[in-house]
Amino acid sequence: MFNKSNVPKRCRKFEARFEDYLGGAPDSELDAHLTHCADCRTALEDSRLAGNLLREAWEPASEPSRAFLAKVMARIHQEEARAKSPAAFWTPFEFLASRLSLTAAVLLLVLSVYLVEFAPRRIVLPTSIRTELSANDFPQPPGDPVSNEEVLQSLAERNNGR
Ligand SMILES: [Zn+2]
Fold first, then answer.
1. Which residue among 65, 85, 113, 135 is least crowded, i.e. fewest CB within 10 A of its CB?
2. pTM for the full model?
3. What residues contact residue 6 under an 8 Å CB cut-off, 6+ apart?
């Protein structure tokens, strides 16, 4: 953990106390030494950085897992409570049913407005639709000409631009 190469041999006894010192243990002798030993100050700072990095790498892994576990347990208790209560079991279905009936009502309203406003009358009033075709629905063919003379006469009348 400590970078030993930065610390001279005469400082090795202080280096061994770095960890406790960084952990918050008071060490007046080390304090005094650090004021006049740049090597130990640098080494201590390196150790502090290394410790911070190590904690940052360690704590995010442990903290969320604890929160995640608590969330999961809370969810399990929630589901258990719901399963034990029959009324609570039907709540989502009632919600869904109310949503569906509301949607159906809105659709029915829109459809009726559309039919009244835009649809042709014969669709709105189906009783006016004729279900059977009568002979009067077709144009009557002209009566059969009784003779060729009448045919010629009628043709002549058409050619004259009647
Ligand atoms: Zn030193």
1. 135
2. 0.34
3. 39, 42, 43, 46
